[in-house]
Amino acid sequence: MFEIATALLIGFIILLLLLFLHARKQNPDYFFLVGKVVLITGASSGIGRACSFKFYRHGCKVVLCSRNKAELIKVKESLELQTTALGVKAITPEVHILDVSDISHVEKNVQNIIEASGGKIDIVINNAGVSYRGHVTSTQLEVFQKVMDVNFLGQVAVTKAVLPYMVKSNGGHIIGIGSVQGKIAVPHRAPYTASKHACQAFYDSLRSEVAHNNIHVSVVNPGYVKTNLSHSALTDDGSSYGKLDETTAKGLHPDVIAKFVVHSVILKKKEIMVAPFHHKLVVWIRLICPNLYFWLMKKRTNV
Ligand SMILES: NC(=O)C1=CN([C@@H]2O[C@H](COP(=O)(O)OP(=O)(O)OC[C@H]3O[C@@H](n4cnc5c(N)ncnc54)[C@H](OP(=O)(O)O)[C@@H]3O)[C@@H](O)[C@H]2O)C=CC1
Ligand SMILES: CCCCCCCCCCCCCCCC(=O)OCC(=O)COP(=O)(O)O
Fold first, then answer.
1. What is the pTM of this model?
2. 233 lines ligand 2 (CB under 6 A)
3. Contact 63, 91 (CB under 8 A)
4. How far is Cα 153 from Cα 159, in angstroms, rounded to an integer?
5. Ligand 1 midpoint to CA 42 (Å)
6. For atom 10 of ligand 2, which residue has the closest CA?
7. Which of 73, 120, 150, 205 has the fewest beta carbons closer than 10 A?
8. What is 36-286's CATH number, 3.90.950.20, 3.30.360.10, 3.40.50.720, 3.90.226.10?
């Protein structure tokens, strides 16, 4: 009887210890971010803009990049009206024009941006992206090329530009903003979902290559988010779709995604999916029961 009670007590103490260690691991240390240099692509709108606010408020130096300088300046001005969290000193944001689809120049352009911001880079948020609405049969090949350039090769080129700096300083964090569509393909999104699947594979491959350099790689996969994404989506002939889809309008607030991006850095998460339960279920169905997934997707197809 005495031995059983002792064994139960020891078991209970071990359980408490494990719970304590787990809670410590999950407890975000926001001070970790203070003074870090964070480069954000697509910072003029939506998720990128929301990330700029979160990292700025945590005391980071945010380097805001996109093609639209006027919009970036507006983001910078709004940031400067903010107070920082944790009572830390704010660092003036920087604004730089960067077109991630200008593939042959992106590496050099990003290196110039890093040098102009002090020659140091701690965190990169590869967020710039464009979506698509159309049918494969009627879509010009140039549209596939454009979506892949912005969403995939753009992220690869920015990553390649920052890696030498991170290797040299023996640390860094690269975050790819993917999508649920990097896990499952849906109809009428062929180039978009292909680009997001490519990114997922790229980061999964890169993660193990750079781990020994103390460089962390996270992929954040959102479901629908209320941004301009459907508006600027490309169509079959390369023109913009120009509409706010109902799915987008009813999507999550970009701040929610930005909060998970911050957590992915602080908690060094390899992958986070920020989506409703039924989206996560379809990802599992694709793995476990592919024929059910094929049937579900056929039902979603407008022909
Ligand atoms: N909204 C959603 O439902 C979801 C979005 N995502 C992903 O989130 C990311 C951000 O999109 P989101 O905020 O929703 O959409 P927005 O359209 O609001 O923002 C897209 C951003 O990307 C920038 N961008 C587009 N093309 C280029 C380019 N060639 N070079 C540089 N920047 C570019 C735009 O800046 P500018 O025009 O100033 O250059 C803009 O800042 C994308 O990767 C998207 O795939 C993932 C899942 C769901
Ligand atoms: C047996 C039970 C099955 C439950 C079935 C539910 C069926 C729902 C299908 C859901 C498909 C998931 C789509 C997810 C799409 C998504 O969230 O993508 C995020 C984006 O990147 C959005 O970009 P877009 O340009 O497509 O707006």
1. 0.93
2. yes
3. no
4. 10
5. 6
6. 279
7. 205
8. 3.40.50.720
